[in-house]
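Probable membrane transporter protein (Kordiimonas lacus), 317 aa
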Amino acid sequence: MDTSTSHTGTPAKRMPAKPRWLRRLTAGSAAVMVAAYGGLVMNTDHSALTALEGLFLYLVGFGAATIANSTGVGGGVVFLPAFEYLGAGGHIAIVAGQIVGMSFIIQSFGMSTGSLRWLHRIHDPRGTDTGVPPAVFLRMLGLVLACALPAMLITQSLHTSPPEAILWAFKTVSVALGLLVLITSWLGRGRLQNRSHPTRADYALLALLSVIGGIATAFFSVGVGELVALYLFTRNFPLITTAALAVIASAVSVLFGVWDHLLSGPQPWDILMYVIPGAITGGFIARPFAEMLGPVRLKVFAASWITLSSTYLLLIS
């Protein structure tokens, strides 16, 4: 029996513990990641890269995962252009066909870490704002995954490279949604209240965007989290709901999709050995970074990043 008392002399209330399943999930996930990374290190040539190159790759992983896990936008938005530049410039030996697979592998570590951090925030008994009700959150997450995962897995089984029309459409939708977030953030600043329950139209549009995002994720390792996050931002859902839903959806998607790349050919493990720790670190600090920015600045940050990067990719394609 807890006999502690408060400073007023009355019995202190015991703080409710986080769910047992969450503690077990965290411990199990940490054990799997440590074992997987340990196996990678023991079977990789440590002399393939210099210390300076390793530090640069760590920082790439760190920056990408921080952005990804604070906004819900997949880390591939950073990984793809960074690795493409490094490979094309001959700075590091990366084959173009490996870039998407590398992004899937890195996000399996980084987005998983970020997902656990957001889950702990949602179930933190000291938190005053945990987003939409848990049952609603699970319903939204279940819908997103039920639409995105089949679309991604079917696409992976049917195509080995993205049709140009798909690439153009994904970038265009990203730019349009990014601009919409910026406009609604500007027009509604200080006046809109957080939305606590989605409408039927929200569910319908989330389903549609999840299918598009699942297809895009198969090709680019990003898509579902990006589109879901942008849509929820435009609808003014709470920061915690938006970020957590997009991050968890991205994490589950890459964990299901990474096997297609692991089984299809060799990966540059000497490079991944340095990027993965950076991604884990970024995934860990991303949640407090997002909370520090706050809902409005995070919306503007995420929307600006997506709009500018997607516009750039449209211009060079």
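The radius of gyration is 20 Å. DSSP finds ten helices and no strands in the chain. ok done for today
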